[in-house]
Amino acid sequence: MIREPWISQILMGRKTWELRGTPTKIRGRLALIRSGSGLIIGECQLDDCVGPVGFDTLIATGALSSHERDDIEREGHAPYVAVDGVTSKTFAWIVSRPILYSQPVAYNHPSGAITFVDLTKQGVIQCIEASSSTNKAMQAASRQLQLL
What we know:
The protein is an alpha+beta fold. It has 4 helices and 6 strands. A 6-stranded mixed sheet has the order 1-4-3-2-6-5. A hairpin with a 5-residue loop joins β2 (about 30-35) and β3 (about 40-50). The longest helix is centred in the middle third of the chain and has 10 residues, at about 65-75.
């Protein structure tokens, strides 16, 4: 799940790094959920994961929104740090080719799922409508879902 304003920044192509405290080896299309909505509102491509990324790189990159860079600079350190409070444990999940769905797709969050949800499992997707735009959204959403 991704909170606002970050999910909108990704879907508008203004944010191409999603910052996480752990790396991932997953690559490919990911469905995106607005935090607290229970809806898949779009998708993007997860191209790579780099890091740990240091403070200086984070405040200099154009891959984050200016608001996010300002927040990091105000904090004075990377968002995810080791117990020493200095060493970065921040990873940039590099995303591209965002698509905002014209009609969000409801889903059931499986118990215990933290980072990824398999949308092909029975009962995860709540409904399929007959419209072609929803069918396209469902086909896209029937891949692995990133809960950022």
